[in-house]
């Protein structure tokens, strides 16, 4: 029975890892559909290569920082019949690799390729696992201090803060350091529209992400006996709430319509195992509003050229999810309890500080040392031709 249970747990978490791996295709197609046609190939290649770099960085450095587990000389890990600990690494890697996938959407259309790969290695190898270890492995005693001070540790079941807020807040300094795309804003305060190149691909990316998210959330239980249908129900309700509010406030704009469910899903990760479904619906709806309002504000008023709106979508909705777990997870709001709003506020704030500082240091250093932006001619030609020497839809044959 122990062998059967271990094998079942390994299969359970492996299926979750595969579902989240598929979400990276969603990241790719969401970015592909949002950027202009001359940058579509770059969007596809970036997400794939970022995942490969993330695997190496997390395997050799990041996983050890977060959990104290190293693969050098670990015969015990390799000899496990079911390989649960190895599959667990795969599962947690797919979370870590979401950080550069999130950042990629914010810096699209003007970032240099190889410096971004270096940034990926540093973010996944050092910055992300620092907070991951604090939140999910009780590193440095911070969780114990929060529990002693406020009655409960910081709760983030599936990564509203650990993954999404960290990714979004790490992206913000990268976006600011890069500057806006050339021609996006005029000197007289006006704006030039850069409409999405393909709404169907944008929608496909959002659908892939939404489907994979149920593996992201439900399989965060990590073992079969801890699997909870409440997580799936709450994920569904938050997705629906985010969709409806974003469509309403976004005035039927398809970009808002397809980012609305993602906003709701980002926000529900933290408290999906605690909330009443009505609380999840409210959490998702508020997240949809946050995305529409803050995306419009950052783009139109603050002139921050965050191409896919990853700061409002992941950074702000993720932070809201961390706080919402402390509100709607409480018994007074129909939740299961065992959570403290003050701990949620403190843990969320800590995640934001680590991510923002990490982003400033990594991208600031790269900007000073090697440069992180395409030059004017390369940006005009587009990242596809400048970096990859081919467009998404070549219109003629080339002979040598």
Describe the fold and architecture.
The protein is mostly helical and 400 residues long. 70% of the residues lie in helices and 0% in strands. The longest helix is centred in the first third of the chain and has 33 residues, at 2-34.
What secondary-structure arrangement, pairings included, does this model have?
Layout: H1 2-34, H2 40-67, H3 75-79, H4 84-96, H5 98-106, H6 113-137, H7 142-150, H8 160-178, H9 199-218, H10 229-249, H11 254-268, H12 277-301, H13 310-328, H14 341-369, H15 376-381, H16 383-388
Helix pairs in contact: 1-2, 1-4, 1-5, 1-9, 2-4, 2-5, 2-6, 5-8, 6-8, 6-14, 7-14, 8-13, 8-14, 9-10, 9-11, 10-11, 10-12, 11-12, 11-13, 12-13, 13-14
Could you give the order of the helices and strands?
A: HHHHHHHHHHHHHHHH
The structural class is mainly alpha
Q: How many helical stretches?
A: 16
Low-confidence stretches: none
How does the overall form come out from the CA principal axes?
A: globular
Q: Largest sheet, if any?
A: none
Q: Estimate percent helicity.
A: over 70%
Mean pLDDT: 95
- CA distance, first residue to last residue: 65 Å
> Which oligomeric form is depicted?
single chain
Number of strands: 0
Share of residues in strands: under 5%
Radius of gyration from CA coordinates? 21 Å
